[in-house]
Structure formats: structure tokens, C-alpha cells
TrEMBL record:
Pfam families assigned to the protein according to its UniProt record, in alphabetical order: ADK
Similarity field: Belongs to the adenylate kinase family.
Coiled-coil positions: none
Organism: Hypotaenidia okinawae
Keyword Transit peptide attributed: no
Protein's name according to its UniProt entry: Adenylate kinase 8
InterPro entries noted in UniProt: Adenylat/UMP-CMP_kin (IPR000850), ADK_active_lid_dom_sf (IPR036193), P-loop_NTPase (IPR027417)
Length: 137
């Protein structure tokens, strides 16, 4: 996700780019590993597969599938560790964030996010300046 750390969040804010909704996806470590480490790609067609959730339809395709080096377990572990180190500060920085249980059907995840996006934001009352009518210009 983005921002990945508090420094990026602060840079966004200093640039006057302030998201009106922030989502944190919660997913157990085992599920992260299962989802990422079992991804494969067909180098001929570019089609993406998952050995558990969307296996290749034929043994021929299965034989030519390749794994992106980023999806090797040791690389996933490094990325997850970095995320775990940074997420607490980001959660404090974006205190009004939404938390998504990402360990469920993608359709349910989409519906939850959609409900958060279409829900009107709370309006913030802007204080009007007090004008002193007795003051001389």
C-alpha cells in the first residue's frame, strides 16, 4: 500500500495531498504467504495463475509457469517484516482509517470498501471569523 511508512505519510500531508479515506488490510501471516508465494505467471501468454486458487488448466501450461522472485518466501518475509514495523505509526497517523478483514472472499472485501467509499464523510464545521464591528480600518 501507500504510504508505506510515516515519512511518506508526512510528505503527502506537507504536499497538501490528504486522503479522505485510508484503509488498512488485516491478513494473517499464513494467508499472506499462501496468497503470494503460490502465484505464478505464464511467460508466453502473460496469464496469471495461483497453484491453489487458480491452477493452470493443462499440464503443458503448468510446466512453463514461472514465479516472480518477489514472490519467493524469503522476499515476502522481508516485505511483511518491514510492513509490520511501519504500520503502527501509520495507524496512529491516520486515526480515522478503516480496517478491512482481508482474510475473506474478495467480493465481501470489495463490498465493505465500497460501503466506506460511498458513505458521506462527516462534515467539519468551519468556524467563521468574528468581525469586530467597532474596530476602525
Amino acid at each position: 500500500g501507500f504510504p508505506r511508512d510515516i515519512e511518506q505519510g508526512e510528505l503527502l500531508q506537507k504536499s497538501h495531498i490528504i486522503p479522505n479515506r485510508v484503509f488498512f488490510f488485516n491478513l494473517p501471516y499464513e494467508s499472506i504467504m499462501e496468497r503470494l508465494s503460490l502465484r505464478r505467471i505464464d511467460p508466453i501468454t502473460g496469464e496469471r495463475y495461483h497453484t491453489a486458487f487458480k491452477p493452470a488448466p493443462t499440464p503443458e501450461i503448468q510446466a512453463r509457469l514461472r514465479q516472480n522472485p518477489r514472490d519467493k518466501e524469503e522476499n515476502i518475509e522481508k516485505r511483511v517484516e518491514i510492513n509490520y514495523r511501519n504500520v503502527k505509526e501509520l495507524e496512529e497517523f491516520y486515526e480515522d482509517a478503516f480496517y478491512v478483514n482481508a482474510d475473506q472472499d474478495p467480493h465481501n472485501i470489495f463490498e465493505f470498501i465500497e460501503s466506506c467509499v460511498i458513505r458521506p464523510l462527516p462534515s467539519k464545521k468551519i468556524k467563521k471569523p468574528v468581525i469586530n464591528k467597532d474596530a476602525k480600518n
